Amino acid sequence: MPEIEHISLGQELDNMLPITLEEMNSVKLMNRIDAKFLTNEATLRSVLADAAAAGYRVLVTEGERQSPYETVYFDTPGLRMFYDHHNRRLVRQKVRTRCYVRSGEAYLEIKRKNNHGRTSKKRIGLPLEQMTDFSANPEACAYLAKHSWFTQADVSPSLETAFTRITLVNPDLTERLTVDTQLRFRNLRTGLGTTLQDAVIIELKQDGRCQSKMRSIFLEHRIKPVRISKYCIAITLTDPSAKSGRFKVKVRAIEKTIDKKLVIQ
Question: Which domains, from first to last, does the chain contain?
Answer without folding.
Answer: 30-258 (2.40.320.10)
